[in-house]
Amino acid sequence: MHTPRIRLLLTLVLLGVLAPAAHAQTPFASDLDFIVGITQLDDGRILVVQGGEQGNVLSFDTNGTALANFASTVEGPGAVTQLADGRILLSTFANQNVLAFASDGTPLTTFAEGIPLPFSLTQLVDGRVLVTEPISGNVTAFNADGTGRMAFATGLDFPDRVIQLQDGRVLVNTSPPNGGLVLAFDPDGTRLPDFASTDFPVGAMTQLSDGRVLLAQVISGDIATFAPDGTALPDLGTAGADPRAMTQLADGRLLVTDQGGTVFAFEVETASDAFAQIQLFDETPDYQDAIGGGASDIVEMPDGSLGIFFKVQDRFQTQGPDRLYISTSSDGTTWSAREELDTGGHQAICCMSAAADAETGRVVALYFNADANAYRILYSDDGETWTNIAAPSLFQETTVYDLAAAPGGGFAAVMGTTTPGGDFGPAVVTTSADGLTWGNFSAFTEEFNNGAEICSSSIIQRSATDLLVLYDQCDFRFGSASPIRQVSSADNGVTWSAPVTAITSEISFGRRMDATRAADGTLWMIHTNAEDLFYTSSTDGGATWAPSERWTDNAGTPSSPGQDNSPAINMYAGQPMVLFDAIRPENEFNHFYYGIPGVSSDPLSVAIEEVSSFVPETVALAQNYPNPFSGATTIRFSITEAAPVTLTVYDLMGREVKRLVGETLVPGTYEANFDGSGLASGSYLYRLVAGGASTQRQLTLIR
């Protein structure tokens, strides 16, 4: 009998998201001839390059209506791109030059000459322009004015397409004897691990605003889709015969050219629903299945890394006891080898919840040992050495729903109880200063009658003595559901408010929810129904909640959360991070997903001030704080010598949004403060260039 290998995947959500299903294309422009290049200008016009001995650069509006030619009778035109300063560059195969034009089509001084078959062009965020040379096997870099010609990469196998990703990496498509191979480089030209390979050579590539990378394959016409880490996602669709150029428009549509003379437009779902997967590990040789089973959580570890707890079990209980693991990451991309935590060889583990005390650094995980019908506590003060002890007796005959850390230190837990007669008793809260010794119960609900109990609950400590509990009530006999309710206590659980409805969206029987609090007081909540995962937030301490938004629509990968699997949400690096596990429809593999709920943005205005004249050792760009933010945020940066400095915000298409700093500064540390309105929703990059050094980060804006 075939026993499938177990693959546990983590999935990074880029502003939300599930890779959408393929979309049928519609013609944007047709009856053209030998299309070799396409781009959209800042003013919205779309330029389409017709190759040949005497080619043209056509111009269209966003509806596909033909405008006056941008340029005519150009000898052997090829790739086209627009620079940050507005100039348009056009490569010419025949003359081996890169021409420059003003935005109205007026020819300017030739950008560069003597380039063997200049095939593809792109401008990097730092201003340099890369040109691929398939015949020589090189990628050449130029300064933005066309000077300073230098080698970026050499000795490649027919490099023909080049783009820069949102994270700064440069992708170069090559054509080995079989299929296609996309290479990856640092901005300085250092070779990185290969990005992806394809069955057929790649004729065009681009990155969408939600982070997915598209590779259009010649011969098949398939548009292969990849996460930013190179993990394959479902294909976007089929473009037609021999696609050679594509670009995403500002309105989100994707234009793909066909050598048959047609430009196709795809309606592309953007970043509220797309996931990008990264593989955590691919090994469970002795186990037939691996699932979370209500035993997974996500926390910020004492060293600042992101920690994920998860259970691996044999579904049929034939291979051995359940195993509890932890894996950590400092960047969300590279993960430590999973570390098995000592659970004493217990056969069945469930109902686990974890939290980290930011004041002391202690991490505490509560889990239920079904063999002994008792709760256990795993704790660590450094995130490396773990101790397993019996939980206090007050945890017996309970079901722990959630464990949370308090802003000023300590922990709180919410759980359900049973009466001596075995009926469902009141839901209760208990608190602890160290996570090991716990106080007496404080009941916040009356005993439920008729077999109803709490399906899931979450506790948030809004301050040292201010508690908020969110919960849903369900009936196990009939599979009924309830709205999400909430109660609060201003005196650390001595007295409770009357229950009120938090959100009216019902949680179906057996489904789960979780909530957390950001440092700025924003509350985030996730909840599931029979098919989907939703998220919502509150900026007034839970008095009102935003309408719930669907995170997944079950149209592809990933599938909906499993019935017995609990989503978890916690704060990490100032952002709400979500973890849930789901079983694919074929029930072969179980997958873990984590990421940031979809967000919107506010615009920025800037004021800069020096905060320290101490000369730092390196040029540094800090993460903006708070992040995500609404209305105002601060970016701190340091420079080591007097030099021209620019700090610039770009959208995810690489277009400049706002120049925040553009002056010569003396060595020191500076802060730029932002406030404003008017930018489109989304995530943005901010890049620091100081003398010969450059670095960039990504910021997230919310309303």
Q: What's the N-to-C terminus distance?
A: 54 Å
Number of helices: 0
Structural class by helix and strand composition: mainly beta
Subunit arrangement of the protein: single chain
Please outline the major beta sheet: 5 strands, mixed
Total strands: the figure is 56
- Per the principal axes of the C-alpha atoms, what is the gross shape? elongated
Estimate what percentage of residues fall within beta strands: over 45%
Strand order of the largest sheet: 25-1-48-47-46
Task: Tell me what you see in this structure.
The two termini are 54 Å apart. 47% of the residues are buried. This protein has 703 residues and is an all-beta fold. Mean pLDDT is 75; it is low at 1-23, 270-293, 315-319, 447-451, 552-564, 583-591 and 598-607. The strands form 14 sheets. Strands 25-1-48-47-46 form a 5-stranded mixed β-sheet, with no helix packed on it. The protein contains no helices and 56 strands. A hairpin with a 5-residue loop joins strand 7 and strand 8. It is elongated and about 85 Å long.
Secondary structure elements and their pairing?
Layout: E1 8-13, E2 26-29, E3 35-40, E4 46-50, E5 55-60, E6 71-74, E7 77-82, E8 88-92, E9 97-101, E10 121-123, E11 129-133, E12 138-142, E13 150-153, E14 161-164, E15 170-174, E16 180-185, E17 191-198, E18 202-207, E19 213-217, E20 222-226, E21 232-238, E22 246-248, E23 254-258, E24 262-266, E25 275-281, E26 297-300, E27 306-312, E28 323-329, E29 339-341, E30 349-356, E31 363-369, E32 374-380, E33 387-390, E34 398-405, E35 411-418, E36 424-432, E37 442-443, E38 452-461, E39 467-475, E40 482-489, E41 500-507, E42 513-517, E43 523-528, E44 533-538, E45 549-550, E46 568-572, E47 575-583, E48 590-595, E49 606-612, E50 620-621, E51 632-639, E52 643-650, E53 656-665, E54 668-675, E55 683-690, E56 693-700
